[in-house]
Every structure is written in C-alpha cells, then in structure tokens.
Amino acid sequence: MKFQISTPARIHLSLIDLNGSLDRVDGGLGICVNNPQLKIEFSDETSDLFVFSGPQQHKNYFEEFAIKFYEKFNIVPKPIAVKIQKFVAEHQGLGSKTQFLLTIAKGMCMLYETEMTPHQMAVLIGRGGTSGIGYQTFFNGGFVFDLGHSFGKGKDKQSFLPSSASASPPALPFYLNKCPTNWRILLIQLNVKQGANKEEEINIFQKYTPLKLSDVEKISHRILMQFLPGFIENNISLMAQSLHFINNHGFKKVEISLQNSLVSILIEKIYQKFSVPVGMSSFGPTIFTICDSNSLMISIKSYVQNVLENELNSPECAFIETKPNNKGHKIEFL
CA 32: distance to chain centroid? Predict the structure, then answer.
C-alpha cells in the first residue's frame, strides 16, 4: 500500500474565556486554509523496518507518537516508509505540529488497518486540550467554533494551559460550517521572532490568566452578535468589526502585545484602511486578512509592502495567497 495525505493549515482567530467563572474555559474559533500545506507519503512497500525522510524534529515527533500507537493497539511494527514532501513551518501560528501528528496518526491507522474516531485520535496525539480547532479542521475543514472545557476540581481542566501542555480531553465542538467560496485569505509572515513554543506558552498562560470577566463577556458578545451573524450572512464588514474589538481585548490582546510591534501596527493599519477582518493567528507572528475578492487581496498586499518600505529596519516579509479549505485532509493512493 502506498498513499499520500495532504493536510491544510488553520488560522486560529481567538480563544474566548480564560476567566473560568462559569466553570468553563477556553473556547475558540478558527478557519481551515488551503495553504500552507503539509504533505506526507506513506508506504509499506519496503524491506527496511523503518524509513523516515524529513526534518529531524519531525522524525522525533513521529517516533514519540509511534510508541503510543503500537502500545494502544498492541501492534508489532512492520516495515514502513514515511516521507515528508511538504511541511508547514513551526511556531508561525498555523497549527503545524497538530496537523503533522494528526496526519501521522491517520496514515498509521491506514497502514495497520486500524480505526480511531477524531476524538480518539486527538486524545492519542495529546492535542485539543485548549483549542479544538486543529483536530476539527483536519477532519472537516471550514469554520469551527468550539466551547472549550469544563473547569474546576474534578473537571476537564483545573488550570489555564495551552494545548501543547494540557492533558485535558479535546475541546467540545459546537458549530461547524463551510466558509464562503468567494473568500480570499492573505497570510502575511514577517521575519520576526517566532510564535511561542511549549514552555513559553505555559509561562504566558500562567502570567496573564485569569482574564478580567468583563473582557470575556465583551468578547463573547462580539462573537455571538457580530462575528457569527457576519459569517452566516457573509458580511465581511461585520466580521471585521468583531475581530478589531477582539484584537484589543482579552487574551488575543496579550498575544499580539508579545509580538514584534510591527504586527500590531500592520493589523491596525489594514483594518483602518480596508475595513476587512484582520488579526494574528494564535501566538503568531502570522497575520491573516479575509477578503471577498482577488482585487481587494492584491490591494492589501500592495499596501502592506508600501508600509514596510517606509518603516526603518523593517523585516523581510512573505505572503501566502490562499482560500478557505472546506474539506480537511485529502488521501490519494499512489
């Protein structure tokens, strides 16, 4: 058997509740995007017990997962080959490790003819303990809104932690829908400090939580009465207003403030100039904008280039022009 799994990235718009006064925490919303994309080839048509082609860090991730997988299913390893053809850079806020682990889990299930539900897979790879966006978009694509975890003694979570350090079950999915097909998404990647790694995320959560209840209430109001209606009605302006507020309140404000100052400058300038949804995905530094036409996306790209040209010592910048992905991962037999 020989096959290839292609897995889209995701942008994480915001967490919702890091206060916990109602005995629930986390919750969040995110969107699956076609690019950047992870692509891995799997095969059992080899005589070697294990062949892995790809970065050493990914090999380490794979070997850690394989131990859990073999133990769970009481499997004796057979000769397999795993080759990474494309990968998403880590610590850019695009969910690269979660998507890699899910892709590996799915590939191993196919090679060994075993099955896991999305929930079981997320538990085995140890993700979804804060945000459920990654594992939901892997299987379904589109727009995802989750309701987080129960919080308190004897509940899903007893403290505020990122997904990478949380042993909690995957976040409770609530709303899933396809994104409008006319959307165009521009990802802006400044060559600045990478987003937080596991240890840095833990420290940030411990330092800045619990958030003020008033911020959580205001963010929830904006999501319920602005972002979600805007999404359902494909009203870009309404979504833009909601995200602009969220960017300046709660945990998203913290995440943006910890990045290079150019990130917040660009987010604000883009919003004021074009009134489109704009923000930073997860811990960043990737900035995203959502447009309803190619021409608008091109105008935003040109504007960002001009802003950076006029900034002293501005970093290099890469752009990824993409679209929403409404299907999730894709399997092709070779």
Answer: 8
Per-domain boundaries in the chain: 2-333
State yes or no: pLDDT of 61 exceeds 80.
yes
Nearest to 201 by CA among 130, 260, 134: 130
Q: What single-letter amino acid sits at 181?
A: T
Whether the pLDDT of residue 187 is over 80: the answer is yes
165: Cβ contacts below 8 Å, ≥ 6 apart: 129, 198, 201, 202
Listed in order, strand segments (DSSP E) in 21-70 are 24-43, 50-53
Give the whole-angstrom CA distance, residue 219 versus residue 224. 9
pTM here? 0.94
Residue 183 corresponds to which tokens in the numbers above?
Answer: 């959307």
Residue type, 228: L
**Contact call for residues 245 and 253 (beta carbons, < 8 A):** no
Structure tokens given for 5 = 């799994």
Residues 6+ apart with CB under 8 A from 203: none
Q: In this predicted structure, what is the pLDDT of residue 311?
A: 85
Helix (H, G, I), strand (E, B) or coil at 234: coil
Q: How far is CA 113 from the centre of its chain?
A: 28
**Location of structure tokens 């299913």:** 73
Give the domain 2-333 fold: Ribosomal Protein S5; domain 2 (3.30.230)
Helix-helix angle 236-247:250-257, to 10 degrees: 70
Measure the CA–CA gap between 285 and 189, rounded to whole angstroms.
Answer: 7
Contact 24, 150 (CB under 8 A): yes
Residues 96, 81: Cα–Cα separation, whole Å: 21
CB atoms within 10 A of CB 114: 12
Is cis: bond before 162, omega within 30 of 0? Answer: no
Annotate 131-153 with b (16+ C-beta within 10 A) or e (fewer). bbbbbbbbbbbbbbbbbbbbbee
